[in-house]
Amino acid sequence: MKIHLRADEANGTHTRFTVFMDGGNYGQLWWKMTYRFLNFYIPERMEDGIRRYIDERVRPGDFLQAVISNNLKEAVWRADEENINNLPAYVSYFYNEAPSNCWGSKEKMENWIGGYND
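RE: above sequence
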């Protein structure tokens, strides 16, 4: 049996693959991938809060608010050990994957939550 996966779509948190077995199309699957930057990563337990913030404009917890607002001092103060060790992954994620008008300052975050910068 020969299995082949073709990556068809990625949205920052999931990748959709088409599965081929022995040359036939056997459907699709979604694979949730932890965001990584160099040797840093965003813990899986944090991904839903980020997605809810970006997709549904739900206010995140204190740590993510500090990251989104670009407040390094507050982010370090609010982070647990795993998150403080992986801060570069958050910066990379928001810079490379998130809409630019949803992060970078407290004002941008508040406007995003309020729906003022579509």
